Structure formats: C-alpha cells, structure tokens
Amino acid sequence: MPQYELIYFNAAGRAEPIRLCFHYANIPFKDTRVEVNEWAELKHDRKKVPFGLLPVLLVDDKPLCESHAIIRYVAKLTDLDGGSNTDEVAHLDQCYELCRSFHEATRAYFLACRGYGHEDKTKLLDNVFVPNVEKYFGHIRSQLRPSGFFGNTVTYVDFAWFRIIEFYNQHNPEVIQNHPEFLGHGRRIRDIPQLQNYFKNRPETAF
C-alpha cells in the first residue's frame, strides 16, 4: 500500500473531510499539522508544497495539491465517490459543487468569524451569510437521500458538508439551529462507528 501523508495547518479547515475519508476507510496516513511558525519555512519547500499552498497530500512522497482534487482522489481511493455508478458519481459531484458554492459565497463571513479582514462581522452576517443560507440551504437539503446522506450511503460529500455546518454552528448556532435536517445529518456523521476514535481524540482548533 502507498504511504500517505496529509499536510495542513493545525486546524480542521479544508483538510477535515479528507481526514474523515481516511479514518472511515481505516487507511493509515500521517496527519501532519503545521504550526504558524513552521509554515514560514515549509511554504518554500517546493518538493513538498509545490504551489506554496496547503493542504498537500503526499503519496509515496509525490505531492498532490489543491483541496478539491485531493478530496476527489481520496474519495475514489476509499470508495466514497459513488463507485462505478456513473449517475451516482455525477449526483455526488453536483452535490459537492453545490455545497462548495455556498461555502465560497459566504467566504467573507467565514473569514470574519476567524478574525480576518476589516469588514464588520454583523453586517456580513446580515448581508452575506443569511441571504446565502436562504439561497442555498433549500437546494442542498433537497439533495439528501432517504438514507439521510447525499448518496445511498455515506460519501465524501457528507464529510465536506458536515465540516461546513460544524464550523458555522460553532460561530452562528442561532441560524443553523433552524435547520434540523442538517443537524440530524451531523449527528449521523458523528455516530459512524469508524469515526468514533478520531472524534474522541481530534484536537480542538480555531477553525
């Protein structure tokens, strides 16, 4: 089996869905978490970080960059991508891009929650976050299957959406609490037996 090393900051962020795929499939990988003071040097290491961005997945020391490429690669590796069913793969891809569109549309508010930028957080809540919740949540909810997941069983899309909702529920529970379907979805992820050890031991991080 190849040796996998996932390099990201000491945070959940873009790496968390990738970690969840590995843990769900019980595939060993090195979870390298980079502190801020280490990043100043590491970002110039073009063998490990070719584009100067994280996350990076090293596969037998060969780097794969860009978080969306990595999650799709790992989803296929772990059989969490819909398998050989072309229609299911396309459905999941559609769901993933829909979730991604919501996250990108609310990025300014996401950054404000983390303390970045100069825009007023309350204004971003009212002018960016809430309008996009109203725009996207109904569409995203409609993609959930009777299984309670985006596919017939759990998939990489579920892990990606789980992390988005988890972050915003930490920072704005009064909005997220109005969407019980997504809270239930999160509970289903947290109840997955293969993930119990990771959830019990994963570090508390800022984002």
TrEMBL record:
> What are its GO biological-process terms?
glutathione metabolic process
Q: Note the CDD domains from the entry.
A: GST_N_Sigma_like (cd03039)
Q: Which GO-annotated molecular functions does the record name?
A: glutathione transferase activity
Please give the start and end residues of each transmembrane region.
none
**UniProt keyword list:** Transferase
**Record's keyword annotation contains Cell division:** no
User: Where do the coiled-coil regions begin and end?
Assistant: none
Enzyme Commission number(s) from the entry: 2.5.1.18
Q: Which PROSITE patterns match?
A: GST_CTER, GST_NTER
For the GST N-terminal domain, which residue ranges apply? 2-82
What's the name of the protein?
glutathione transferase
